[in-house]
Specification:
The protein is of the alpha/beta class. The chain has 21 helices and 7 strands. Strands 2-3-4-1-5 form a 5-stranded parallel sheet, sandwiched between helices. A two-stranded parallel ribbon has the order 6-7. α11 runs parallel beside α13 (244-250) and α15 runs antiparallel to α18 (340-352).
């Protein structure tokens, strides 16, 4: 935990203590709102959040966004303009002891000096709910203004009571023009950036860096610094040159934003599921690739595809479930990366299969009836009678053996008395369910006729 001002000098270095030069990404952090790039929806002149910061009227907020979108930068700007006592610490490095100490310090500052405390908590989602509870009394009393930064969905990761007393601001990934602007500033800035160095970076190389950064300004600046440092110098002039080819060689693989247990995990599996449901094989295989290339467990995806085969296709294409299970077995058998095509085959099959949720709806309706209606006993004619006692109690009496009928259908009712006539499964006329529907309608007519003939059972 650190107390007092967030940083002592503009580069984040303790004043008067020389040391290694900070990374380029840290040196190029905006020092004022005028240097900010991106997040105009929140921080353009006149926007409520910017006005509250500039007038030192900020109330508790949660900053939610992916890495490299400006959460810590915004905290630095608050530290510069506020007249309140500013305290910062990281949830990764601090525990309940540090929290209590800060709370006590904030309460004392408010009571003795009439001065409020602004508390910046980086990665607030790392605190458990009990630790987050410790902030609540001081937030309610007005002793602290909380700024929480998180990459995770605050709806799931921030205490609901604390969340209700804070305003959530969503920071979006920076678009490529914004990233390019940041990279060009770093190249031209002779004081904090690379402007004093003998280096030429092609525009195509900058565009590649912006694309590979995936909306993360920190990643883009780190990549620029790494490639400039690694680029060979010309023997005659001493200048270094960075081409797009050099960038591609230096970065073998784009870093995909992903958290197997967090928001992006659920966003991507949702996109995959809904793309298959909407019969869009191109989108489905794209979202599959996004998940696999980011390191998702392939068996997790396979389980979701198996579920989809029953929930969204069902009997419209009975083969879908077999394809899904076969893909799961293939992935388990040959592993990754070879298993990726088995999953792609299954995902494309699901996307192009006829769709029906009739099986899902049937089960939901049956489950609802089982849970809410009176649990009537199994009708006697459907019970087995393996002993003379059970036969004497009429177990099995009136049962009709379907194979004895010309169409293998009797007029016998198989639901409890209170549920007779209920229909849970209603097939569509898509795919194979069209044939199933025709069969059920024909059988219904046969059953009605058999009942009229007295062949309905007991």
């Amino acid at each position: 935990m650190s107390t007092g001002r967030l940083f002592d000098d503009e580069n984040g270095e303790p004043a008067g203590k020389p040391g290694p030069r900070p990374p380029l990404a840290d040196r190029m952090r905006p020092r004022s709102f005028d240097e900010l790039v991106g997040q105009d929806d929140l921080l353009a002149p006149g926007r409520p959040l910017r006005v509250a910061i500039e007038r030192d009227l900020l109330q508790s907020i949660i900053l939610w966004g992916p890495p490299g979108t400006g959460k810590t930068t915004l905290a630095r700007l608050v530290a510069q303009v506020t007249r309140a006592h500013f305290i910062s610490f990281s949830a990764v490095l601090s525990g309940i002891k540090e929290i209590k100490a800060v709370m006590a310090e904030a309460e004392q500052a408010r009571r003795q000096l009439g001065r409020r405390t602004i508390l910046f908590v980086d990665e607030i989602h790392r605190f458990n709910k009990a630790q987050q509870d410790a902030f609540l009394p001081r937030v309610e009393a007005g002793d602290i203004v909380l700024i929480g930064a998180t990459t995770e969905n605050p709806s799931f990761e921030v205490n609901s009571a604390l969340l209700s007393r804070s305003q959530v601001f969503v920071l979006k990934p920076l678009d490529q023009p914004a990233i390019l602007d940041i990279l060009r500033r770093a190249l031209s800035d002779a004081e904090r950036g690379l402007g004093a160095e003998q280096v030429d970076v092609d525009e195509e190389a900058l565009e590649a860096m912006a694309r590979l950064a995936n909306g993360d300004a920190r990643t883009a600046l780190n990549l620029l610094e790494a490639t400039v440092t690694a680029a060979p110098a010309d023997p005659a002039s001493g200048r270094r040159h960075v081409s797009v080819t050099f960038v591609e060689q230096a970065v073998q693989r784009k870093a995909l934003l992903y958290d197997k247990a967090g928001e992006e995990h659920f966003n991507l599996i949702s996109a995959l599921h809904k793309s298959m449901r909407n019969s869009d094989p191109d989108a489905a295989v794209y979202w599959l690739a996004r998940m696999l290339e980011a390191g998702e467990d392939p068996l997790y995806i396979a389980r979701r595809v198996v579920r989809f085969a029953s929930e969204d296709i069902g009997i419209a294409d009975p083969q879908a479930l077999s394809v899904a299970v076969a893909a799961k077995e293939a992935v388990h058998f040959i592993g990754m990366p070879e298993g990726n095509t088995a999953l792609a085959q299954a995902v494309i099959y699901m996307a192009t299969a006829p769709k029906s949720n009739a099986v899902y709806v049937a089960y939901q309706g049956a489950a609802d009836a089982a849970l809410k209606d009176e649990a009537e006993p199994v009708p006697l004619h459907l019970r087995n009678a393996p002993t003379r006692l059970l036969k004497a109690l009429d177990y099995g009496k009136g049962y009709r053996y379907a194979h004895d009928e010309p169409d293998a259908v009797t007029g016998m009712d198989c639901l409890p008395e209170r549920l007779q006539g209920r229909r849970f499964y209603r097939p569509t006329d898509r795919g194979f369910e069209r044939e199933v529907r025709r069969r059920l309608e024909a059988w219904a007519a046969i059953k009605a006729r058999r009942k009229g003939e007295g062949g309905s059972g007991p």
